[in-house]
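Entry type: protein chain
Record version: 2
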Amino acid sequence: MTNNKAVILLSGGLDSSTVLYQARADGYDCYAISFDYQQRHRRELEAAKTIARSAGVADHQLVSFDLRQWGGSALTDDSINLPQARSLDEMAQNIPVTYVPARNTIFLSFALAYAETLNASRVYIGVNALDYSGYPDCRPDYIQAMQEVFRLGTKQGREGNAIAIVAPLIQLKKTEIIQLGDRLGVPWEKTWSCYAGDELACGVCDSCRLRLAAFAALELEDPLPYRREQRSVTSDQ
C-alpha cells in the first residue's frame, strides 16, 4: 500500500509554489524536487529552496544535469535572445523560444523515480494549458500519456498501485492561480518567475509580463521588486 507522501516538482515560480501549497492542503507529506539543468540563472533555485522551507517540506531534493550542452532554448543557450516586451496576444501565437525540449518529460521521470523509492501515491506538477506559453508538455493529452508511462513503467504501477500525476492548475487562468495561492497562503514575495534572473525581476520577459498582467487584472500589486516598472500590463495588450 502507498502512504501519504507526495512528490512536488518545485521550480520556485508562481505556479509550482501554488501546487506545493495545494499538496500540503490536501494533507500530503510533501517531498519537493527541483532541477539545476544549467538553465540561464540560479535565481529560481534559490526561490525554490526558500519556498520549500516556508512550506515545511519533509525533504527537498536538487537534481543536477546539463541541458546546456544541447541548447535549443533561450533558457539553455545564451545565443538565443529572450523575448521581451511582447503583448499577451503575441505570446499566444506560437510555441516560444523559451520552450526547453522534453523538459517536463525529463522532470517527471526523475520525480517518478523519487516517488517510487518513497512509495508515494502522487506526483504534483504545476503545468498550465491556459497560459500563453503554449508549451506542448503542459497540455492535458501530454499529462494523460505520462500517466500511462507511470502505470506501465514502474513496479508500483504494474502491481495495481500506480502513482498519480496531479496537475491542479492545468485548466486555470493565471488570475485563478493567484486567487488559489492567496487562499492557500503562498508567499508571493518569495517566488521567482523572471527568465532573466537578476537581483530584480526584469518586468519585460514573457514570464514577468504574464505574471504582472494577472496581478493587475485582479487589482493586486505583485510584491516582487521589478527593475523596470510594468505595473500597467493588462490582459488586452
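Comment: The radius of gyration is 17 Å.
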